[in-house]
Amino acid sequence: MIIDCHGHYTTEPKDLHRFRKEQTAAANAKDKTALPSRASLKMSDDEIRESIEQNQLKLQRERGTDLTIFSPRASGMGHHIGDESISLEWSQICNDLIHRVCALYPKNFIGVCQLPQSPGVPPKNSAAELERCVKELGFVGCNLNPDPSGGYFNSPPLTDKWWYPFYEKMIELDVPAMIHVSGCCNPAMHTTGSYYLNADTMAFMQLILSDLFKDFPTLKLIIPHGGGAVPFHWGRFRGLALNNGRPELDEIIKNNIFFDTCVYHQPGINLLTDVVPVENILFASEMVGAVKGVDPKTGFNFDDTKRYIEKAPRLSDADRAKIFEANARRVYPRLKTKATAKAAV
Ligand SMILES: [Zn+2]
């Protein structure tokens, strides 16, 4: 079985965009009377089916993957838009929509939630929505935004006690978080090209110099997009850790930090799998997402990452089985109640 731990619903029914546009306009105008009503949303099951079957499900079948851990469009979370109540309503709508997809295709998708974060608002305020999604909707994790400002990096580091009450809720519910920023409103950064990778790299550096995992030995965090610049600069990070009296990186990350495989060329995956312990790598593609289209050099889609894992020269079949399935089951313990293996990889 092949589990893709990083997929977003980027082909949502069009009325969702109408709602968000109106909600954003009302928020920017600070006019609560102009907010659209949730009841006005018109998204039929047929529309959802069509959007999934023509895209994510079609690609799953073509590429031979089985289950996608599925969350709302990350760039659409927009935590910087409006206030906490706007963020909560928008998150609930997006999470409920993911739940509908998972209910329509229970073998192919399982949910991960967006959180109702908002700049300056304590992360503990997101605990209730996480709990609702896990307990009522059967979700198995969340996307945690380290920078709800949308590109200004003015939140306390992920290792600050500011975040601890939220981590406590994650531990209680036995779910991991993927560290994932949203759309960027800082014109100096392109959202998926620079902001995402900057945030991934920043998160890793915060984590390796901290005592976070002493305080939370079972906390599990996934750093997406192959860990940003981390694998390429492993020597720099390792040296900095050792110079600061920290253990080897393999030891630091062992049970707590994981990297996905959203790296869109063979040499990048070769490097990732050469440098990062196999136990800390989870298969992912982020389809349909950041980089669409076919690589003219290979003739295959940039985000068809399964091909790169299959061809990575240092991996054994046992390693691939870990990356494709076993590691995800360890990091997302709640998968066991939902997904059953269809076939051994
Ligand atoms: Zn993503």
Short key terms for the protein model shown above:
345 residues; alpha/beta; three-stranded parallel sheet
Question: How would you describe this protein?
Answer:
With 345 residues, the protein is α/β, with parallel strands linked by helices. It is 41% helix and 10% strand. It has 13 helices and 9 strands. It has helices at residues 14-28, 45-53, 56-63, 84-104, 127-135, 164-173, 191-208, 212-215, 234-243, 249-253, 266-275, 305-311, 317-331, and strands at residues 3-9, 67-72, 109-111, 113-114, 142-144, 177-179, 221-223, 257-260, 281-282. The strands form 2 sheets. The protein has a 6-stranded parallel β-sheet with strand order 4-5-6-7-8-9. A 3-stranded parallel β-sheet has the order 1-2-3. The chain is globular. Mean pLDDT is 96; it is low at 341-345.
Could you provide a short overview of the structure?
The protein is α/β, with parallel strands linked by helices and 345 residues long.
SSE inventory with pairings:
Layout: E1 3-9, H1 14-28, H2 45-53, H3 56-63, E2 67-72, H4 84-104, E3 109-111, E4 113-114, H5 127-135, E5 142-144, H6 164-173, E6 177-179, H7 191-208, H8 212-215, E7 221-223, H9 234-243, H10 249-253, E8 257-260, H11 266-275, E9 281-282, H12 305-311, H13 317-331
This protein binds zinc ion.
Structural classification: alpha/beta
Give the H and E element order. EHHHEHEEHEHEHHEHHEHEHH
Tell the overall outline. globular
Helix content: 40-55%
Mean pLDDT: 96
Task: Enumerate the spans where pLDDT stays under 50 for 5 or more consecutive residues.
Answer: 341-345
> Strands of the largest sheet, in order across it?
4-5-6-7-8-9
Give the termini distance in whole angstroms.
5 Å
Strand fraction: 5-15%
- List of distinct ligands in this structure: zinc ion
For the sheet with most strands, the description reads: 6 strands, parallel
Instruction: Write down the Rg.
Output: 19 Å
Number of helices: 13
Report the count of strand segments: 9
